[in-house]
Design a protein that fits this description.
The structure is a single chain. This protein is an all-alpha fold. The chain is 63% helix and 0% strand. The longest helix has 25 residues, at 115-139.
Length: 228
Amino acid sequence: MASDFSRTLALLRREKRISQRTAAGDLQVSQALLSHYENGLREPGLAFVVRAADYFGVSCDYLLGRSLSRDGNRFSEPTASGEKTESDPLAEMYKKLIADSSSLLLEAASRSGSAQLVQEISTYLSAATYKLFRYLYQADGTNPDEAFKTKPQSFDALCDALMKLSELRIQCAAAGGGTLGLKEEEAQMPTLSLGSLNEQFPQEAQSLLTILQNISEKLEQFDRLQKK
């Protein structure tokens, strides 16, 4: 809890553009204690967590790192029963999360004014979709390889290469192009701070925040395994 809380507390203060001294005074603690909280040297009591949540206008769950949504909302993940049903709630949830998140990314790219950015994000997402479909297609050994031009032993690495190139071109296009075969253009990305997503993308933000939270937790688990 300490690392999530300290990181989030420092982030919120910086976003509010106030000094430690000012925040400490408003939160009724010493500047030294606030510094210890922000650096993870001390863990706060419940009263301070509630006070800080009210002060920064976020939920306690967000402040403690339990949710990336500042109002604390989380998708509850259905439990896979293993039974085939007409509408699998787990699949339905992930369909919504991925569809909403993809829509948000493309809408953000569109608002930047860069057609190149829209194209590169579309290429990246399409390549990932192609790759996943080929995995599932191959799982059925009766499906003929000839349905695709790219051989089964080649498509995986080629998709990886295409996606890596798209990653570089996405970063380039978002910065205005000019290299990697992209023409120079004016691109103005919308503000994508976590605090502004719900306001800018009210229909899709919660899905994206849920994916960010889920993947963040998986990355942390993997990182802990690497350190052992």
